[in-house]
């Protein structure tokens, strides 16, 4: 598998509702550093229109790990044709410490 693996989101998705992804600086991401957060893909999504309103997949950085939030179909298709890197919006979520 060209990705780090498949896992559940360890963060609360509600945190991302207010994120303006277009204001996040794009970064080049290596597929092997990214956790997928969906274990199933819709075939129609894979074969259908590949362009969305977002030019980049959305990646969340949480506790030094990277999780694909949106753009699974695009990245899986690109991995199938041997891409190993992709520009993505990467949003860092900070953890409040109750230390």
Description:
A hairpin with a 2-residue loop joins strand 4 (58-62) and strand 5 (65-70). The protein has two helices and six strands, in the order βββαββαβ. The radius of gyration is 14 Å and the shape is globular. Helix content is 14%, strand content 30%. It is an alpha/beta fold. Strands 1-3-5-4-6-2 form a six-stranded mixed β-sheet, with no helix packed on it. The chain has a single domain (5-93), classed as Alpha-Beta Complex (Conserved hypothetical protein from pyrococcus furiosus pfu- 392566-001, ParB domain). It starts with a strand and ends in a 6-residue tail after the last strand.
Short précis:
It contains 2 helices and 6 strands. The chain has 99 residues and is an alpha/beta fold.
Protein topology:
Elements: E1 5-6, E2 26-30, E3 34-36, H1 43-47, E4 58-62, E5 65-70, H2 72-80, E6 85-93
Parallel strand pairs: 1-3, 3-5, 4-6
Antiparallel strand pairs: 2-6, 4-5
């Amino acid at each position: 598998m060209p990705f780090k693996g498949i896992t559940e989101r360890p963060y609360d998705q509600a945190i991302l509702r207010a994120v303006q992804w277009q204001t996040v600086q794009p970064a080049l991401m290596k597929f092997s550093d990214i956790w997928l957060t969906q274990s199933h893909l819709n075939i129609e999504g894979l074969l259908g229109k590949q362009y969305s309103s977002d030019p980049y997949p959305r990646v969340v950085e949480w506790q030094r790990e990277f999780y694909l939030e949106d753009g699974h179909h695009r990245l899986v298709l690109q991995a199938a044709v041997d891409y190993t890197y992709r520009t993505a919006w990467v949003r860092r979520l900070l953890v409040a410490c109750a230390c």
